[in-house]
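At this stage, I put together one protein's amino acid sequence and its backbone structure tokens, which the following lines show:
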Amino acid sequence: MGGLTLGADPVAYAIARASVDAPPTVDAFTVRKEPKGHGARRQLEGCFERGATVVVVEDVVTTGQSALRAIEAVRAEGGTVIGVLAVVDREEGGRDAIASAGYPLRSLLSLADLNLAPDAPSAPKH
């Protein structure tokens, strides 16, 4: 699992580390915004191999464009994406954009879950 750097990195690598103690073991990778300009000129770094089946991860999904860019990079490197996992869905169209591209999105929380949705009551001020 992996996603567009920098937001997805701690999520992907934390899950990969936790999977060592609670198998099945999951590998993690990073998707650079652009391929490196030197060396191997790779856009994907870490534990990614051509033909891998992966989940793209995000810290926060807003419009879905970061996840879609990561999906495009994975596919360009010969990977298969089976879905997107996000910590928070801001409920600003990202879920629909990702679904329109043919991928399911699962999020741990939404803004509504956190009482932060635009129509949620204001949090008390202390």
